[in-house]
Structures are given as structure tokens and as C-alpha cells.
């Protein structure tokens, strides 16, 4: 759907957004790290999109955080508290998530990740 880029949120933009949403391109912001969120994270980090979260996906996330946030993470495929804190810091920068840097992979961090992916700000 072609939309004229005029900087205004008009009927064409609304229709394009609704079509995008209806296709399931946007994630539910539910704090659940399920297959849809995993696939979106894999797309954003440039790894194989298969909906499976494992060491290869985690290494891609670690490389992404090192590139975009200068996180200085070891690219080891382990999602420990240091990697989660780096993700939280990145999300606070990208979408003003307001996350505590506690290293906990829970609802707040996952919901912030989903918001960032929906806004293409990851």
C-alpha cells in the first residue's frame, strides 16, 4: 500500500498501519517470549528466523547489543544477567522503557522488547 510521505497521520497512514497490524506484523505486548517475539527478535538481529531460542539466536542478540549499544558482551550464546542488563540498557535508550537494570529476564523486559520491535526501534 503506497502512502505519500507528508509527515501527517492521515487516512492513508491509518489504513497502511491497520493493514500492517491485521497481517500480524505487530506483536502483542504481553510479556510472553513466545515464538512470534522470538521470530521478530531473530529478524531484528539478522539470524535464522525459526522461532527457536537457543545459543545461535543469543549470540546474534549479543552481537546486536555490542554493535548498537557498545555493550562489550562476550558473544558466548549464554543469556545471563550481564546480557539481560545490556538488553535492558539498550531498551531504555531506544524506547525510554524505564527498566531497572536488574538483569531479570521477566515480564517488564520482554514487554519493553516487544514495544521496541513493534516500533522498529531495536
TrEMBL record:
<dbReference type="InterPro" id="IPR036366">
    <property type="entry name" value="PGBDSf"/>
</dbReference>
<protein>
    <submittedName>
        <fullName>Uncharacterized protein</fullName>
    </submittedName>
</protein>
<dbReference type="InterPro" id="IPR036365">
    <property type="entry name" value="PGBD-like_sf"/>
</dbReference>
Amino acid at each position: 500500500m503506497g502512502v505519500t510521505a507528508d509527515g501527517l497521520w492521515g487516512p492513508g497512514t491509518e489504513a497502511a498501519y491497520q493493514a500492517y497490524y491485521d497481517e500480524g506484523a505487530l506483536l502483542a505486548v504481553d510479556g510472553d517470549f513466545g515464538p512470534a517475539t522470538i521470530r521478530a527478535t531473530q529478524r531484528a538481529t539478522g539470524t535464522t528466523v525459526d522461532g527457536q531460542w537457543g545459543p545461535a539466536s543469543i549470540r546474534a542478540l549479543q552481537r546486536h547489543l555490542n554493535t548498537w549499544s557498545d555493550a562489550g558482551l562476550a558473544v558466548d550464546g549464554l543469556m545471563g544477567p550481564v546480557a539481560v542488563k545490556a538488553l535492558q540498557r539498550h531498551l531504555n535508550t531506544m524506547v525510554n522503557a524505564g527498566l531497572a537494570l536488574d538483569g531479570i529476564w521477566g515480564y517488564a523486559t520482554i514487554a519493553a522488547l516487544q514495544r521496541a520491535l513493534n516500533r522498529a526501534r531495536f
